[in-house]
């Protein structure tokens, strides 16, 4: 598990002086199987710049633990949830 989320630094940022650096945060995506209302069994996921994924419980928001999953583990999670 990690903190609230990870920031990604622009590849165009200078190596030593980060004063002109731009950072981006990945957006969480809610499961399409979640209802329009606040569904108590909703999961959110986002893909990292490494290609791996992070998953969290949407009803907890920023208080939710974040689980790091490799791509094969994420695909296995999706398959088992079907």
UniProtKB/TrEMBL annotation:
<protein>
    <submittedName>
        <fullName>DUF397 domain-containing protein</fullName>
    </submittedName>
</protein>
<feature type="compositionally biased region" description="Basic and acidic residues">
    <location>
        <begin position="46"/>
        <end position="62"/>
    </location>
</feature>
<dbReference type="InterPro" id="IPR007278">
    <property type="entry name" value="DUF397"/>
</dbReference>
<feature type="domain" description="DUF397">
    <location>
        <begin position="27"/>
        <end position="81"/>
    </location>
</feature>
<dbReference type="Pfam" id="PF04149">
    <property type="entry name" value="DUF397"/>
</dbReference>
<feature type="region of interest" description="Disordered">
    <location>
        <begin position="31"/>
        <end position="64"/>
    </location>
</feature>
<feature type="region of interest" description="Disordered">
    <location>
        <begin position="1"/>
        <end position="20"/>
    </location>
</feature>
């Amino acid at each position: 598990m990690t903190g609230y989320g990870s920031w990604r630094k622009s590849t165009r940022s200078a190596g030593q002086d980060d004063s002109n650096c731009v950072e981006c945060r990945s957006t969480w995506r809610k499961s399409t199987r979640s209802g329009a209302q606040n569904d108590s069994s909703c999961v959110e996921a986002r893909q990292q710049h490494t290609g791996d994924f992070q998953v969290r419980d949407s009803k907890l928001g920023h208080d939710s633990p974040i689980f790091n999953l490799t791509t094969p583990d994420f695909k296995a999670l999706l398959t088992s949830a079907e």
